[in-house]
Write a structure and sequence with these properties.
Chain lengths: ~525, ~120, ~425
């Protein structure tokens, strides 16, 4: 009896995931049993409480992880029978994701803007513009499932960033993606656009997941194992069947780069960012990118580090293209959300420059620089989308850039915050974006990638021109008479915008503490 | 012969019988043309025209299919567990119970939302 | 087991012949028994006791015109009966008819089972569910409303009850430690599983009736609503194939019940103690077929006794009563058995607990009126609670409870009419 040994689980190390998963499941139960009246408030409180609890657990876990010996400041260990690696990058990403999710949850819970109704549709099954939809609005129905869905997506992101096993990574990829597909289709306004976004995201996402899975299969065929460490050993020891490995790497990269939003797998980004409900866009833009970048870096550096000469040139090209397309694309946009989407593509390029830059060296490592960049980018993104939620007219959010002219005269503080986020995106000194860009470029420089760095700086200049133009439009043009009404910011959104603005400045003026944290989290443990 | 080959033999016999029956039927039976015979049968009344593509089907069937997939996968997970039960420890039992609880949560949600109510 | 080719072919042919003959017999048996229940005589003209009636019917069907309706999707329409027939036979590949025997006139020993798969029961589930394709494709390809609705209903019904059926197997595998049919039979040498696993057995029996679309769950062929259901547009031998598949499926689920819960081919209680050779040679085939015939009789008895359920009652029963009950019972067995294995529970306590669980389960099955605790999410509850199981039998409602509001419930009109007749009568 008992011939099959029970697996060993390090409960203290995976506690944040357990807490979050439990809260998400409780959310589903609440959805089933709490009456409709108090349900929204209960769900929002539980979701926010759950994220806070998971954040606390993450900090507690971080204090318990050991610092490993050696020249790099690696900490943590592989947990759950080799499925997860609770190491520096994982813990940093978990913390970052939870903070970003906390801000997003506040946006999810905002009900002041839509006349007492959330940004999500009342009954998603109704056809847009149908009488059923009007009836749902009249009865003030709300889909409170968004909270458990977002928590599941968050759980998937955290798993994704920490997986050291390709199968686990695939499961995490699905757990993170499926709720997001649904969330994208739930916008209260512009339902057709929202549904189109959800469908596009789902189809392309499913497609890229399939690529990822084929990649996993090929890599398994090459290495005979799913663990990243096993793959790394095989890469180091096997010399034959290189094409199998390279095909596997390429297919894995398709799946991961899709989630990162890098060119040429970026085409979903503008449509989805535009169509999704703005809180979801904020959550997804900040969170998915962070999780996907860390997962990409982990796969590339841990598993395929030994073959880097084979894959690096391709990634240089992807990084360069991504920066270029993102920056040039954002110039052409007339819609704020689409503009932010292209901007996020450009940022993906900058982060990739850091990731494929230096793998070691004395200065900042590529992982630390990417982590810091993700922090700066994530905070500013959520802040920017929070501002987008506030600029409204009679039909909901007014995202046409033309209607934003002269916004600075009507709402100086709000426009000021948006300008601050724009400047941070542009990488102007004294904002978080500057330190982030400095980090990734110096990491790339240390790795000898000076052409990429030069290109990056040039692209930054192009992009800066555009971001500054938005700022100028807001502050130095006359407001249009038919411009949007500004909604009175609800308490939640105000908090989010304020926190994001303060964080953007703080990370720019004195980045020391967070930079230190990122540097301590600079090495993967396998 | 291996474990699975006999299945093919039985399958071949059954397939031969079925195909033979279908093939022989037009030869043994009479053939007397009548337009009404070849029309759809709706108890003698004028058949309702079937819309292009078969028309719309109640979404309930889709729900049922989805639920079936969820539960069938659950069962497929339970079978190896049940077969290996004697070799497993309490840990596995708790893991399976946790799994069942998770399924039940989704089940409760669907129940409460009327996903299983047929009108 | 490694049988020579000729043995495999012989066994396969025998299984096929037995099934076809058994089907012919069952049709006659059903007609006779139902006739007796209704104070009629039943077929008694062709052959002794009318035994050849089914054969005559088969020949008559072959001589009927083979129609392919105009609106049909020709290829699928022709393929569907074939697709329904083959899996029905295939399931029998793993059913053990008896122990190892010597083939007469030779020195070859072989088990009375075509092949012994380690995943036998899973194989049966897999193969029988392929038969659903035949049904749903037949309904779809006929291009007819009744056939389409019948096919949809039928497939929804089969998959709904398959879940409960699958769950009831879990406990058997738990006890037997195997999914192989022969090993499950071997594991029941001392105790047939229907005793310790009463709830599983009951759930299986209900599910198997639902799974085979038999009365009182024969909604896909509700004559008053859907004419013949999915095979409305079929005639001649194609129709005969559906008929055959349905009866073979009935025998299949009976055989599974026998194998998993009633000790398979083992001689009935006590007989093996009295008579040494009861479990040797070819006698077990008799026990096996006898037990199976018992289930067939149950099927017929149900048909002769119970009226048809309403569709929503049927689905509600499957999803909201049968599945939770099966889940709860499975969990109870898992926990109690592990506690017993780890020495935290002795056998007496286990039996007591099992008894309590059985009572609770029976109460769940029979207790009515659980509808009140599920207020509809979007529509106000408009019906008074209706107890479908008052007195232990599903009964039609006293007044017509539904007004057809949507096109697809038009068929419910016919339903009501019949319900009213029943209640008026």
């Amino acid at each position: 009896m008992n011939e099959i040994p029970a697996p060993v689980l390090e409960w203290d190390l995976i506690a944040p995931l357990m807490v979050l998963g439990a809260v998400a499941v409780v959310g589903v139960l609440l959805e089933a049993f709490v009456p409709r009246g108090p349900r929204f408030v209960v769900q929002a409180s539980v979701a926010i409480g759950g994220v806070v609890a998971a954040l606390g657990t993450t900090i507690w876990t971080a204090t318990r992880t050991d610092v490993l010996d050696g020249d790099v400041l690696a900490r943590g260990q592989v947990a759950a029978e080799g499925a997860l690696s609770v190491d520096g990058p994982s813990l940093f990403t978990w913390g970052l994701l939870l903070v970003l999710a906390l801000l997003s949850m506040l946006l999810f819970a905002e009900r002041r803007l839509g006349g007492g109704l959330s940004a999500f549709t009342g009954r998603a099954a109704d056809a847009p513009g149908s009488s059923g939809e009007a009836e749902a609005t009249r009865h003030r129905l709300e889909h409170t499932e968004v909270f458990p869905l977002a928590l599941f997506a968050l759980l998937g992101m955290m798993l994704f960033a920490a997986s050291t096993d390709l199968l686990m990574m695939f499961v995490a990829l699905e757990v993170l993606s499926l709720p997001l597909y649904v969330l994208c289709g739930l916008a209260r306004r512009r339902r057709l656009l929202s549904q189109e976004a959800a469908l596009k995201y789902f189809l392309l996402g499913a497609f890229s997941s399939a690529f990822f899975l084929y990649g996993v299969a090929l890599v398994y065929g090459y290495a005979g194992g799913f663990g990243l460490a096993e793959v790394a050993d095989a890469v180091a020891s096997r010399t034959q069947e290189r094409p199998l490995l390279l095909a596997g790497v390429a297919l894995l990269a398709v799946g991961l780069l899709f989630k990162v939003g890098a060119v040429p797998f970026h085409s979903w980004t503008p449509d989805v960012y535009q169509g999704a409900p703005t809180p979801v866009t904020a959550f997804m833009a900040a969170g998915t990118k962070a999780a996907a970048v860390v997962a990409l870096a982990r796969v590339l550096l841990v598993a395929f580090g030994g073959a880097e000469w084979d894959w690096q040139p391709a990634f240089w090209a992807v990084a360069a293209l991504t920066m270029l397309v993102g920056a040039v694309g954002s110039i052409a946009q007339g819609d704020v959300k689409r503009m932010l989407a292209y901007s996020s593509i450009a940022h993906a390029g900058f982060i990739l420059v850091g990731v494929v830059g230096a793998t070691g060296g004395d200065g900042i490592t590529s992982v630390s620089s990417a982590l810091f960049y993700l922090t700066a980018y994530g905070v500013a993104t959520i802040g920017a989308f929070a501002v987008v939620m506030l600029v409204r007219d009679a039909s909901g959010e007014s995202t046409d850039l033309d209607t934003w002219t002269g916004l600075g005269r009507r709402a100086p503080w709000l426009a000021g915050a948006f300008a601050l986020f724009m400047l941070s995106f542009a990488g102007i000194p004294l904002t978080a974006g500057f330190i982030g860009k400095w980090g990734v470029f110096s990491a790339a420089w240390a790795g000898g990638l000076w052409p990429l760095v030069v290109l990056g700086v040039l692209v930054s200049a192009v992009a800066a021109f555009f971001y500054v133009r938005v700022v100028l439009t807001m502050f130095f043009d006359e407001p249009r008479p038919d411009g949007p009404l500004l909604a009175v910011p609800g308490a939640m959104t105000t908090v989010v915008v304020t926190v994001a603005a303060v964080a953007t400045v703080a990370l720019g003026v004195m980045p020391g503490p967070v930079l230190d944290l990122a540097q301590q989290a600079g090495a993967f443990v396998r | 012969m291996g474990e699975y080959a006999p299945i093919l033999v039985l399958g071949a016999i059954a397939a031969g019988f079925a195909i033979f029956s279908v093939a022989i039927a037009p030869l043994t039976g009479p053939r007397r043309y009548n337009r009404a015979k070849l029309d759809r049968y709706e108890s003698g009344i004028q058949p309702t025209p079937v819309p292009e593509g078969g028309g719309r089907i109640p979404v309930k069937y889709f729900f049922t299919a989805m639920m079936f997939i969820v539960f069938d996968i659950e069962i497929v997970f339970l079978y190896p567990f049940a077969v290996a039960f004697d070799a497993l420890s309490w840990f596995a039992v708790l893991a399976v119970l946790l799994f069942l609880v998770n399924i039940t949560v989704a089940y409760a949600y669907e129940w409460r939302r009327g996903g299983m109510a047929w009108d | 087991m490694n049988d020579p080719v000729w043995v495999v072919v012989l066994k396969a042919v025998l299984i096929f012949v037995i099934l076809v003959l058994y089907t012919l017999f069952n049709i006659w048996f059903e007609r006779r028994v139902v006739a007796r229940m209704q104070h009629r005589v039943g077929p008694n003209v062709n052959g002794p006791f009318g035994l050849l009636q089914s054969l005559a019917d088969g020949v008559k069907l072959a001589l009927k015109e083979d129609l392919v309706v105009k609106a049909a999707d020709k290829l699928v329409y022709v393929l569907a009966p074939i697709l329904a027939t083959i899996p029905a036979f295939l399931a029998w590949a793993v059913i053990p008819f008896g122990p190892e025997v010597r083939i007469p006139f030779t020195d070859t020993y072989t088990a009375l089972q075509l092949t012994d798969l380690p995943v036998g029961v899973l194989y049966v589930l897999a193969v029988t569910s392929i038969g659903v394709y035949g049904i749903v494709l037949a309904g779809w390809s006929s291009g007819s409303t009744y056939a389409l609705l019948g096919g949809l209903r039928s497939s929804a019904q089969v998959i709904s009850y398959e879940v409960a059926m699958g769950l009831s197997f879990v406990t058997v595998f738990l006890y037997a430690g195997s999914m192989s049919t022969s090993e499950i039979v071997a594991a029941q040498e001392d105790l047939w599983y229907f005793l310790p696993l009463v709830p599983s057995f009951l759930i299986y029996v209900v599910a198997m009736v639902g799974e085979t679309n038999r009365a009182p769950f024969d909604l896909p062929e509700a004559e008053g609503e859907l004419v013949g259901g999915f095979h409305t547009e079929y005639s001649s031998l194609k129709f005969a194939l559906f008929f055959l598949a349905e009866y073979v499926n009935m025998v299949t689920v009976s055989a599974i019940a026998t194998t998993l819960f009633l000790g398979g081919w083992r001689a009935p209680f006590g007989l093996a103690q009295v008579w040494e050779g009861a479990n040797d040679g070819y006698w077990p085939v008799l026990w096996f077929l006898g037990k199976t015939l018992g289930f067939i009789f149950l099927f017929i008895w149900l048909r002769g006794t119970l009226p048809r359920l309403r569709y929503d009652q049927f689905m509600t029963f499957g999803w909201k009563v049968l599945i939770p009950a099966a889940l709860a019972w499975t969990v109870a067995v898992i926990v109690l058995r592990k506690a017993q294995q780890e020495g935290q529970l002795d056998r007496t306590a286990l039996l007591v607990a099992a008894g309590v669980a059985a009572v609770v389960l029976l109460a769940t099955l029979l207790l009515p009126g659980r509808r009140g605790d599920e207020p509809a999410e979007s529509e106000p509850a408009d019906e008074p609670d209706f107890d479908a199981y008052a007195g232990g039998y599903p009964v039609p409602p006293p007044q017509a409870p539904h007004v057809p509001t949507r096109p697809w419930t038009q068929t419910a009109i016919a339903h009501h009419a019949r319900d009213k007749e029943d209640s008026d009568a």
